[in-house]
Amino acid sequence: MDAPWWIPIATAVAFWASVATLGGLVTDIGPWYRSLRQPWWKPRDALFGPIWTTVFLTAGTGCVIAWRGTGGTPEERLLFQVACVVNGVGNVWWSWLFFRARRPDWALWQVGPFWLSIFWMYWTSRPLAYEAGIWFAPYLTWVTIAIYLNWTVVKLNGPFRGR
């Protein structure tokens, strides 16, 4: 028996809201962050919230479409779910490394696997519902920009030695 229509939506909302909340809790844009030299092209801090909200909404939509898709084996569905959890952990871990540990250099090393986890979500969603994959494009795009921003911050401010 199929799950009621609202279960995938409620699960996606709870999952992405948890990732956003945990990421927000470990993000500190206080004096240390404000003291970092930033590239001229960095988006204003006030834009990061709306951008991440959009990214999470589109990724959540992709997750719902994949969940409600009729393709894929149970193993492929499990692999997609694992990819989502790995991505959520990677998202929060990057924020912790950059903002709490104050190690943008370590965050730069971690952001590669984090980016790959987004691609993994895209790739594993396709057998479930091919059209789900496109919804991960904004996430891949934004994190690609974030990688370059992270690299630039390291270049402008390194070396880092933690707190």
Can you tell me about this structure?
29% of the residues are buried. The protein is an all-alpha fold and 163 residues long. The chain has six helices and no strands. It has helices at 6-26, 31-35, 45-68, 74-100, 104-125, 137-157. It has one domain: Up-down Bundle (Ferritin), CATH 1.20.1260.
Q: Tell me the quaternary state.
A: single chain
The total count of strands amounts to 0
Number of helices: 6
How many domains make up the coordinates? Answer: 1
Instruction: Report the portion of residues in β strands.
Output: under 5%
Question: What is the molecular shape?
Answer: elongated
Main sheet summary? none
What is the CATH topology assignment? Ferritin
Order of helices and strands: HHHHHH
Calculate Rg over CA atoms.
17 Å
Supply the CATH class: Mainly Alpha
The parts where pLDDT drops under 50 for at least 5 residues are: none
Helicity level: over 70%
Rounded to the nearest angstrom, the distance between the terminal CA atoms is 53 Å
CATH superfamily: TspO/MBR protein
What would you say the CATH architecture is?
Up-down Bundle
Mean pLDDT: 95
Quickly list its features:
163 residues, mainly alpha, Ferritin, 6 helices, 74% helix, 0% strand, elongated
Question: Could you give a short description of this structure?
Answer:
This protein is mainly α.
